[in-house]
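Practice problem 4.
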């Protein structure tokens, strides 16, 4: 996947496209409010999982996704380091308290897929634990879906060059120092290991009831807009604008094996 000319700094560029982006985002956020009205009225439970490499733009995407949604019915959960007690629990147990109740729209900023990615690559867990996870996660998700949870899974995919640029920008920006961690610092050195872990995760955990949706995220603003469009398209709600909820399938698309062959996923 070729690196974009605009990536790490595109939030700060006030160019001719900025007005278009703001207008498009505003219109899509209105659609999200319409969607949430329906979800609340029907007592729906929605869980959106946002995954991706370090610096892929998860925080910024989630901020734009949720910033105008009802704070009472909207929650974002970003899993931290497990406690000593959680280390002894069934792996999925630590996530259960954060699953959505009726009327709630919950976003996981990283999720149980930490085990298939960061924990695996950084050797925070054993190979047996990774294998157990891969065997259990699809039945676990199918159980949640059968119980009525609407589950959507997105992976923000960036090129190696773009990640390098963004990590360098973080080191220079005093307002982004909190984002730097040992995991971030090891991201480039472990690029191939993360690619291999990602690809196995897609193959083993993308299933008909909850397929992985890939978002090509070298350009942050485009990625945000297209992810929101795709999310809106996946729901029915009163007053829906089909024109706005029409994602660009060259940017966001369901994972499939041929996506690698066609160069749609970063190597």
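Answer key:
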């Amino acid at each position: 996947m070729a690196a974009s000319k605009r990536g790490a700094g595109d939030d700060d560029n006030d160019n001719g496209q900025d007005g278009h982006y703001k207008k498009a985002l505003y219109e899509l956020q209105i659609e999200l409010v319409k969607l949430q009205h329906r979800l609340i009225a029907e007592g729906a439970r929605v869980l959106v999982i946002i995954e991706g490499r370090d610096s892929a733009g998860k925080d910024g995407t989630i901020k734009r996704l949720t910033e105008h949604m009802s704070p009472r019915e909207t929650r974002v959960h970003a899993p931290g380091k497990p406690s000593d007690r959680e280390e002894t629990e069934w792996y999925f147990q630590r996530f259960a308290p954060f699953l959505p109740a009726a009327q709630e729209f919950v976003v996981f900023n990283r999720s149980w897929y930490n085990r298939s990615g960061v924990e695996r690559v950084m050797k925070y867990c054993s190979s047996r634990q990774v294998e157990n996870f891969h065997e259990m996660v699809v039945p676990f998700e199918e159980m949640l879906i059968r119980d009525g949870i609407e589950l959507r899974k997105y992976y923000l995919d960036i090129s190696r060059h773009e990640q390098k640029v963004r990590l360098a920008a973080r080191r220079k920006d005093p307002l982004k120092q909190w984002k730097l961690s040992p995991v971030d610092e090891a991201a480039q050195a472990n690029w191939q290991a993360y690619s291999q872990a990602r690809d196995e995760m897609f193959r083993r955990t993308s299933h008909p009831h909850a397929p992985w949706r890939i978002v090509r995220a070298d350009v942050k603003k485009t990625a945000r807009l297209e992810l929101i469009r795709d999310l809106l398209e996946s729901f029915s709600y009163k007053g829906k604008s089909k024109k706005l909820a029409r994602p660009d399938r060259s940017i966001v698309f369901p994972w499939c094996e041929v996506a690698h062959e066609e160069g749609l996923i970063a190597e």
